[in-house]
Amino acid sequence: ISTDFLERLLFRQFGASFDELEGAAARKRLASWWRTVEARHGPASSVRALLDEAATPLAETLGFHVTRIERADDLFVVSLTREQCAVPLLVVPWHSPLEAAWRPALRRGLLHQSGWCLVYGGWRLRVLDVAHGHARRYLEFDLPLVLGDDTAVSVLSALVTPEALECPTTPADSLLARIVSASDQQGVRVCSALRS
Fold it and tell me: Do 125 and 119 form a contact (C-beta atoms < 8 A)?
């Protein structure tokens, strides 16, 4: 999703899909969650501590239910659900490169039959496009920066929710997939206009 699309067109084209009151409440919950994480955790935090005290509360703050947790090598895999939505969340060490979780994330996304996989690493949250894994597309949130900007928090609280990630029939039907497609189409229009 391009910055231009996020800043100018996201809420204009898809605003009806987002509940403003719920978004305001989510922003407050996210700010409260981050204050707790920032006060208690850092590079020395164990992955288990990040799972229990940061990743699980973040998922619940965003509207997911944690239904299963399993250990896999140096990370944890959390099954997040809500109604039709089943999304895996991988929790990695604080300063671990999120790119290192690419293959496990794709594998878990496919096992969950989800078009998306979340990867959390202390101060970053990444949404991987599992449906188009070959393209290595993702949306990443630098949480300290995001939570310091109201517009960025609105984007996070709108795009990383069960409602945005659920796929009633296919991954391409999810709200986030439709937003990515609209951003791609806007990029093509901009490139065409620049060539003219």
Answer: yes
By C-alpha distance, which of 86, 108, 94 is closest to 174?
A: 86
Q: Is the pTM of this model over 0.90?
A: no
Q: CA–CA separation, 8 vs 12, rounded Å? A: 7
Section 129-149 average pLDDT:
84
Residue where the block lists tokens 């806007």: 186
Residues 185-192 have a mean pLDDT of: 75
Question: In this structure, which amino acid lies at residue 121?
Answer: G
Please, what is the Cα angle at 157 between 166 and 92, to 5 degrees? 80
Within 8 A by CB and 6+ apart from 18, the residues are 11, 154, 158
CA distance 178 to 113: 18
pLDDT on residue 18:
59
